[in-house]
């Protein structure tokens, strides 16, 4: 089993390259002021950036750096389209603004309004980064995990109350959180000792639906394996569980069944909170990833089997070259009438 990384690898690499470019540019400017010969061939002037890309669950990114302000980086994020049962405040999940300020501090400024077509635009001042390389890298990894910070903000708020064994105030009985375009999963935070998470599993392809159903049944059974007793209890059912009573009909339609997790305070203590938030936020993508891997593995096995059968059929065919050679060795020569009489008399 493979768990998805919380940070965007392309975004992290872009940030690291940009910070390195800024540091080299600053060193070059200082060297010019001090009249120090430039002995570093890798020094380059600041370059303009304008990158667009899309990652899983239709999360879009846009990174932009202008030549006028090479130390300023604009990061825009577009979130999945929320279904009607979810609640967005200003185009963002509740608690997202506070989570961003708490995670990034003074180096990040939230632009209001964001760029057109995006839910969030962050302004990063790279000149305010710490000179400590290890701390700077950890902060850039956190910036590259902006998806987790924003989409996981409501879940983080609820689970923090669970860690303190209290109930979050002013929270509905059933909370819908977006995790895919027009799809959501649900939380029931009405008990101080546990929080129930329910995932309606939907797949467009019929083969993916069959594979996902089998995968989820095995996933639930693996909970009984020795060493996994401390993992959250997991249930799978083909029909909607009773916890989803009152949800919309669209939310209750799932062709691959429903998966239910029960989260206890021990699952969100200390550093476990971040991992639990990310795993719950990307559970559907995790299942979809392994379903596609299983499908690709089956196709590979089928192709290898077909190739072995074709080789067996080719070995069963008679050798045409040997047959032709044998036919040539048995050729006959036509004799004239005089030669035939001579051979008969002899």
UniProtKB/TrEMBL annotation:
GO terms assigned for molecular function: actin filament binding; structural constituent of cytoskeleton
Stretch list, region Disordered: 317-346
InterPro entries per record: ARPC2 (IPR007188), ARPC2/4 (IPR034666)
GO-annotated cellular components: Arp2/3 protein complex
Biased composition (Basic residues): 325-335
Keyword Hydrolase: no
Gene Ontology BP annotations: actin filament polymerization; Arp2/3 complex-mediated actin nucleation
Subcellular localization: Cytoplasm, Cytoskeleton
Superkingdom of this protein's organism: Eukaryota
Family designation: Belongs to the ARPC2 family.
Functional note: Functions as actin-binding component of the Arp2/3 complex which is involved in regulation of actin polymerization and together with an activating nucleation-promoting factor (NPF) mediates the formation of branched actin networks.
Subunit and interaction comment: Component of the Arp2/3 complex.
Name of this protein: Arp2/3 complex 34 kDa subunit
Highest classification ranks of the organism: Eukaryota, Viridiplantae, Streptophyta, Embryophyta, Tracheophyta
Gene: LOC110428619
């Amino acid at each position: 089993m493979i768990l998805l990384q919380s940070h965007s690898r392309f975004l992290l690499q872009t940030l690291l390259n940009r910070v390195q470019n800024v540091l080299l540019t600053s060193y070059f400017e200082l060297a010019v002021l001090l009249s120090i010969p430039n002995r570093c061939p890798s020094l380059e002037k600041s370059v303009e950036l304008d990158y667009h890309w899309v990652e899983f669950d239709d999360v879009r990114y846009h990174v932009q750096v202008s030549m006028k302000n090479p130390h300023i980086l604009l990061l825009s994020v577009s979130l999945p389209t929320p279904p009607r049962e979810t609640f967005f405040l200003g185009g963002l999940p509740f608690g997202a603004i506070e989570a961003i300020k708490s995670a990034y501090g003074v180096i990040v400024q939230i632009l209001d309004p964001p760029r057109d077509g995006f839910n969030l635009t962050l302004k990063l001042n790279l000149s305010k980064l710490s000179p400590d390389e290890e701390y700077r890298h950890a902060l850039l990894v956190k910036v590259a995990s902006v998806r987790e910070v924003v989409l996981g903000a409501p879940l983080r708020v609820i689970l923090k109350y669970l860690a303190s064994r209290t109930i979050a105030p002013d929270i509905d009985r059933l909370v819908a959180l977006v995790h895919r375009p027009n799809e959501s999963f649900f939380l029931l935070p009405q008990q101080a000792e546990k929080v129930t998470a329910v995932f309606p599993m939907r797949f467009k392809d019929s083969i993916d639906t069959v594979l996902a159903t089998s995968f989820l049944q095995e996933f639930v059974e693996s909970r009984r394996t020795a060493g996994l007793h401390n993992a959250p209890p997991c249930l799978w059912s083909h029909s909607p569980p009773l916890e989803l009573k009152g949800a919309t009909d669209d939310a209750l339609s799932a062709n691959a069944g429903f998966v239910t997790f029960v989260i206890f305070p021990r699952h969100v203590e200390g550093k476990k909170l971040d991992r639990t938030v990310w795993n719950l936020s990307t559970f559907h993508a995790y299942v979809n990833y392994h379903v596609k891997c299983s499908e690709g593995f089956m196709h590979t096995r089928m192709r290898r089997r077909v190739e072995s059968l074709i080789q067996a059929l080719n070995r069963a065919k008679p050798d045409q070259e040997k047959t032709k050679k044998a036919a040539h060795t048995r050729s006959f020569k036509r004799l004239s009438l005089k030669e035939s009489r001579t051979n008969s008399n002899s």
